[in-house]
Amino acid sequence: xxxxxxxxxxxxxxxxxxxxxxxxxxxxxxxxxxxxxxxxxxxxxxxxxxxxxxxxxxxxxxxxxxxxxxxxxxxxxxxxxxxxxxxxxxxxxxxxxxxxxxxxxxxxxxxxxxxxxxxxxxxxxxxxxxxxxxxxxxxxxxxxxxxxxxxxxxxxxxxxxxxxxxxxxxxxxxxxxxxxxxxxxxxxxxxxxxxxxxxxxxxxxxxxxxxxxxxxxxxxxxxxxxxxxxxxxxxxxxxxxxxxxxxxxxxxxxxxxxxxxxxxxxxx
Length: 268
Hints:
Elements: E1 20-23, H1 29-40, E2 44-49, H2 53-65, E3 74-78, H3 84-98, E4 104-107, H4 124-152, E5 155-160, H5 164-167, H6 173-192, E6 198-205, H7 211-214, H8 219-227, H9 237-248, E7 259-262
Parallel strand pairs: 1-2, 1-4, 2-3, 4-5, 5-6, 6-7
Helix pairs in contact: 1-9, 3-4, 4-6
C-alpha cells in the first residue's frame, strides 16, 4: 500500500501481507465474506460483531486453523459501533493483538427494517436505531480509523452502502437515507485526508443473496427484483468481496472519494 510505513512487507502472491483489517458486522453475510476474502489476500482480520459471538468465533477458528503461520491471523472483538467508547476499545484491542495500527477499515455493520414500512409508518425508534448503526457507526469507526491511520502512514477506509440510494425503492426510506448520509460523509472525508495516504470510498451493492436481503420478502418480491437485473440473478457475496479486496490493495490507490455501484445493472 503506497503511503503505508516501510515496516510493512508485501508479498507478490498475497497483496495484503502485513496489513491488518477491521471488518465491522463481520459475523455473517457480506461482512463475513469480506473478512474471509481479505484474509485470503494476506491480511490479518478483525471480526467485529455486536451480538453473534458464536458465529464470530467460528469464523476466527476457521481462519486460524487454516493458517500456515504460528501467529494469530484473526480475532473477534465485540463492539457496538454506535457507542464511542466501544469503538475506541475495538481499535485499542486491535493494536494490542497485532502490535500495529489498523491499515484497512471496512464499515459493513448495518441494519434494515424487514417490515419495509413507508415513511408515514416508520417509528421514531426504528429511524433512530437505523441511523445509529448505519450512519453514526460508520462515522465513529471512520473517525477513529482516520486518526490512527494518519499516524501509521496511510490506509484504506471502505464503507458498504447500498444501490437503493439510487433506485429509491419504497419501504427503504430510513435505510436509504442512512446510507446516503454515509456516501456524502465519505466523499468529504476523502478530501479532508489529503496528504495522509488514506483513501476513502463506498461500495454500494445491489440485491445480494444474504440473510439481510431475504428477511421479510415474499417469493414474488424476490422474483421481481431478479427480473429487474439485466444479468437475471441476485448478487452473490463474491461479487462484492473482490471489489473490496481491490480497493484495499495497492492497485486501488488511485480510486478515492468514489461510490461504486456493484449491482449487475439493477434498476427499478
